[in-house]
Each structure stands twice: as structure tokens, then as C-alpha cells.
Amino acid sequence: MDKVFSDPGKMDVMPVNKPKLLLLLLLVMSLTACGLGKPPATQAPGATAERTLAPVVVPATPTASPTATPPPATLTPLPATPTSPPVPSPTGTFTLTPVPQPPVWVRNPTDQTLVKVDPATDTIQARVPLEGGVSILAATSTALWAANDTTLYKLSPEDGTVIAKTALSHPPVTIAVGTSAVWLGLMVLPKNLRPGTEYSPSGQVARIDPDSLAISNTVDLDCAPKSIGYANASVWVTSGCFDQSAVDEIDPKTLAVTALTNPPGQPANPDRWPAGTGGILVASPTAVWMVSTDGSTVSRVDPASHKILQQSDVLGPYNTVPVGMAYAAGQVWLALPDGKILGLDPSTLALITSLDLQRLLPTVDFAASPGALWVNDPTHAILTRIDPAAKAVTGSLSTGSPSPTPTP
Fold this sequence. Notes:
Layout: H1 18-33, E1 104-108, E2 113-118, E3 123-129, E4 136-139, E5 144-147, E6 151-155, E7 162-167, E8 172-177, E9 182-188, E10 202-208, E11 215-221, E12 224-231, E13 234-241, E14 244-250, E15 257-259, E16 280-284, E17 287-291, E18 298-301, E19 308-312, E20 324-328, E21 331-335, E22 340-344, E23 351-356, E24 365-369, E25 372-377, E26 382-387, E27 392-398
Antiparallel strand pairs: 1-2, 2-3, 4-5, 5-6, 6-7, 8-9, 9-10, 10-11, 12-13, 13-14, 14-15, 16-17, 17-18, 18-19, 20-21, 21-22, 22-23, 24-25, 25-26, 26-27
């Protein structure tokens, strides 16, 4: 339909196109049903119709009714990790178990026994009788070596059980334990000695196999041995007779003897020490200390070079010859006949410790344990304990019967 009205006062009737008319009617009916084709009631006659759209009402989104603000949520704690029960606070006094110490062994020649002493309690734990008694004793961590005039014993250091023994042809006077052998200094008495004859015994150094106790070798000495030690893988021995004294070094493999002192009556050798240098000695792996035969000097010797590194007249004020010597607890120890015990610095030979046992000491044996020096007086059967750090005598105990007092 191209034109409906051509003149506002006159209507022209045009031929009707039926299909188009039908579509128009359907459109009007649709608009009427939606309220768009009906003019508002207040519209004036002849006024131009104004199309208004009905408001589209959008349903409000439903909201929950206001409620009170909930309290903050709280987390339920997880179970605690299992732990050890709490240790109660200590109360009272603790008692520490003392660390066991090796026993100290000393000899009592009168009772013919070896005495075992507990160094932790200063008490005697056992007495081991030995046939013939004990004249010399050496103790190591693996064995006890005890001897009398006729027999050498090897014993257990725990309980004194005899492990082995061997007969000796000469009385032993000194002993040293090396790395692979035991060394005995023996006194050799002249044969067919007639009564009233003045004599001086000679000596031997015997090499003992520590397992079989067999004497494998001997070295002859001009005089009886006084003391023997082991230093720098060599055997050191002092000997003396009448006005003669000597210090010798023995090679333990070849048994070659190196004389370190000038023999009496011989031209002086500048490479050897003066006669009388060696009275008694004690040795460590790296040093040798010795006292002169007259007690006037104490010397420290380098066993590798044979040089005397230090000499001291520390014994001068005492005017006596020591009856015993030892190296223990970091000091060189000397026992004097009047009962004094002296401790010397091993390097400078200066006096560190001086104690008086208040009795005469014809002979003395030394022993050592951790933190203590033990002085055995076999004549009076008294064992004395010394604390080297405190420089004090800390106790004494009887080891058995004392030697009988000689009749004047």
C-alpha cells in the first residue's frame, strides 16, 4: 500500500491488496493487545496520539531478612604432639660412680707377698703370696713382673695369678720392661769364694722373652748393675764396684754395648762423661735422668745424642745419695735416706715438691696411679700416698708385717 491518504478532507478509495491488508490487521491487533494501539483516555480530540510504553517491572531480587552479625568463628585446636614426660627437678645429693682405676701393686718382702691396693678407696684388696718372697717388682698394664733371688714370675695385673715363671741363675737387682723384652740386671757372685776374701761381684744384663720367660741373651758387665731403664729403643744401665762406676747403652737387637763414661785409670775421652756420673738412673721414652755416685749432681741426658742437656746441684743441701728414683706424674722423684721425698721439674731439674715422711728409708719402691704417687717403704711395711698437684701426703696404710729390727 503506497498511499492511504492523499487529501486530508477527502478519502480516496484505492483498490485493496488483501494479503497486505491482512498483515496490517494482524499487526494492529498485536499492538492493541500490548496496549500500544489504544490512545490514553485523556487525549483530546484531534490531538496527535503519543505512544507511551508501559513500564517494565523488574521483580526485586529477594533478600534475606537482616540477622545479627555472627560471632567470630573459633578453631578447634589440634591434639598436641605427644612429648616425653617432664623431668622432675633434681633434689637431694647426686652420687657419681667412680671410674675404675687400675690397682696399685707393691711388695712386702717380710710377708713374702704382693699387695693389691685399690687407689680409689686406699684399701687393700688382696695379698698374693710368692714362694721366696719378692725383691724387685715392675708393673705394666698387661703384666706384673716380680722376682726374688732364684725365680722370675709373670703375673696377672688384675688378680695376681701366676701366668708363668722361670728359674734364675743369679740374683736380680733391677728390672726394666721394654717394647719386646724384659731386661734384668743380675749380680754375678764369684765362684769358689773363700770366707774372709774381699771381692766385688760383676754383673750381667739378661734379655727375657716376655711370653716364654726364656733368657735369650746376656751381656756381661765389669761391675754389678745398680739401675736399668729403657729409652729411645735402647737399654740403659748403670753399674758400680769399689770406686768404679759406669753408664752403658745396649742395643736390644745386636746387644752391642756403648760405654758412656770414662773408665777409671784410663786417659780421659772427651766424648765420654766423667767417672762417677752414673749412680742410679730412671728413663722415659725420650729422656734419661741420673744421679751421680756421690749424689752431688742430677743430670738430664738426651738418649739419642748422649749429650747431657742439664745438670743441677739440687741435692747439695741434703748431702746424701738417694735410695730410690722414679719418673711419674710429670716430675722426677727422689727418695732420700732420711725420709724426704723430692719432686724435680723434668726439664730444668728445679725443686718442685719437698715432703718429709718422718722416718728413715733404707729402701723405697715407687708406683703411680692417676693423680697419685705411691711411696712403698717395704722395711716398715707402710705405703704412702702423695698428691703431686697439692704437694701433700694424703694418706698411708700398712701393707703387712714390718721387717724385724736388727739387733745392735
